[in-house]
TrEMBL record:
<dbReference type="Pfam" id="PF00561">
    <property type="entry name" value="Abhydrolase_1"/>
</dbReference>
<dbReference type="InterPro" id="IPR029058">
    <property type="entry name" value="AB_hydrolase_fold"/>
</dbReference>
<protein>
    <submittedName>
        <fullName>Lysophospholipase BODYGUARD 3</fullName>
    </submittedName>
</protein>
<dbReference type="InterPro" id="IPR000073">
    <property type="entry name" value="AB_hydrolase_1"/>
</dbReference>
<feature type="domain" description="AB hydrolase-1">
    <location>
        <begin position="200"/>
        <end position="303"/>
    </location>
</feature>
Length: 477
């Protein structure tokens, strides 16, 4: 009996691998075809060939005003302007995602160029030393897509119209364009500045919005908590009602600066608690490290912290963990499409996000308005550009930084650290939370039985609101 089960398990695994290989090979081909289709559509609709990340990096150093991409070690781009040299984190997973189609097409070219590249290495390094009267010791290559995408931004010009033809142009999605100052949408509740004793910042996860907190937790806090704490929930850059600039790369720096400009500075927040979910946990850690003396407690829900093995490139490892190119379970299949296929995911956004009003109407019609649609609104109201870059630059691109962030929290910060995870979470493995505890031993890990990535909050908001109040009280005491 045991041998039979083992054989069946092995057979099922082999069949799954075979089906996954066939399906994703076809998707590789489909994404290649869609790349050309969108190039043509963009040209005829917007009168310009739009860049994408299918282009390979050019082995050259461009003149001043271009962007350099390091493909050795940590991935960075350098914006050379007339006033400063600015570093931004850009994940190499944006333009380097190995697949069968790409490997076959590149193999012959790489072999033919191998000797030439080896001979040209010395020349390239010497050219790098001439940039900005200093020395650049790493070997840099240029990703032509990033150069094109930021050329307008460096020159102070907007590269793409707002919105693009494939984005939604309803008032909800473009409300930020009518405001003279570009800041995040912030939902603030609680007493006035002088009466509030402490502040709390809520950061939502990927393709979500502030409603994840305001529709669940905010109504369930006790009167004592509402009179003690100022509660701030933001729509992250590119999501909900917040700005969705088409010339942004949605880097960690951009997300953090927008939170600071929208919450910390205008509301004069000096010390605060942070509650973050999923992708928001990465921003919470980065924000805590940037303001080590201000954070009083960190509450991380399902943090996507994958322990990267030594000698493995972090960005590519995390991408494989988040999006394993498997057809089962369905959540892994969906994540793989969103992460690996730039043009297929753009098509999905075109069909769903651009037409979110229709989908919301149909959903309300089918359910007869028995289900609140705030989760759907958070899921629908973003652009492909925002989701694509945030997914890669935050989740994948910070893989090599999270160890340092957690070490700083462990060694320099005195704040209370709490990690909460649903036992049935299929999006972020439970082990990720224990990885945080391994790095920060004082972190408390609480596993919620029979709850997943969303129901860890939705459906247990009253209990979770009480838990947060206890955490804040303990951290302040």
């Amino acid at each position: 009996m045991g041998k039979t089960i083992m054989v069946l398990t092995l057979t099922g695994r082999v069949m799954h691998e075979a089906v996954s290989f066939i399906v994703f090979s076809l998707l590789d081909l489909l994404d290649f075809i869609l790349c050309f289709a969108y190039k043509v559509a963009d040209f005829f609709i917007e009168a310009e060939w739009k860049p994408c990340y299918c282009s390979s990096a050019k082995e050259a150093i461009t003149s001043s005003g271009k962007i350099l991409v390091s493909e050795q070690g940590e991935s960075k781009i350098v914006c050379l302007s007339s006033t400063k040299v600015e570093l931004e984190e850009v994940s190499d997973t944006l333009y380097s995602r190995c697949s069968l189609l790409s490997e076959v097409s590149k193999f012959t070219v790489n072999e033919l160029k191998r000797i030439k590249v080896e001979k040209g290495t010395t020349t390239t390094r010497q050219s790098c030393k001439k940039i900005k009267k200093g020395t650049v010791r790493s070997k840099f290559t240029v990703n032509s897509t990033i150069v094109e995408m930021l050329q307008g931004k460096i020159g102070g010009q907007q590269l793409h119209p707002i919105p693009r033809w494939s984005d939604c142009d309803c008032k909800f999605c473009t409300s930020w364009t009518t405001c003279s100052k570009e800041t995040l949408f912030v939902r603030a509740e609680g007493p006035e500045d002088r009466k509030a004793k402490e502040d709390v910042l809520f950061i939502h996860g990927f393709i979500s919005s502030s409603a994840f907190w305001t529709e669940t937790l905010f109504p369930n806090f006790s009167n004592a908590a509402k009179s003690t704490y100022r509660l701030f929930a933001v729509d992250l850059l590119g999501f909900g009602r917040s700005p969705k600039p088409t010339d942004s790369l949605y880097t960690l720096r951009e997300h953090l600066e927008m939170i600071e400009q929208s919450v910390l500075e205008p509301y004069k927040v000096k010390s605060f608690h942070i509650v973050a979910h999923s992708l928001g946990c990465i921003l919470a850690l980065a924000l805590a490290v940037k303001h080590p003396d201000s954070v009083k407690s960190l509450t991380l829900l399902a943090p996507p912290y994958y322990s990267v093995p030594k000698g493995v490139q972090g960005t590519q490892y995390v991408m494989r963990m988040v999006a394993p190119r498997r057809v089962w379970p369905p959540i892994a299949f969906g994540a793989s499409i969103a992460c690996w296929y730039e043009h297929i995911s753009r098509t999905i956004c075109l069909l769903i996000c651009k037409n979110h009003r229709l989908w919301e109407f149909l959903f309300k019609l089918v359910t007869r308005n028995r289900f609140r649609t705030y989760l759907l609104e958070g899921f629908f109201c973003h652009t492909h550009n925002a989701a694509w870059h945030t997914l890669h630059n935050i989740i994948c691109g910070t893989a090599s930084k999270l160890d340092g962030y957690l070490d700083t929290v462990r060694d320099r910060l005195k704040c209370d650290v709490n990690v909460i995870h649903g036992r049935d979470d299929e999006v972020i493995p439970l082990q990720c939370s224990f990885n945080v505890q391994d790095r920060v031993p004082r972190a408390r890990v609480k596993v919620i039985e029979k709850k997943d990535h969303i129901t860890i909050v939705v459906g247990r908001q009253k209990a979770f609101a009480r838990e947060l109040e206890e955490i804040w009280k303990r951290a302040s005491g």
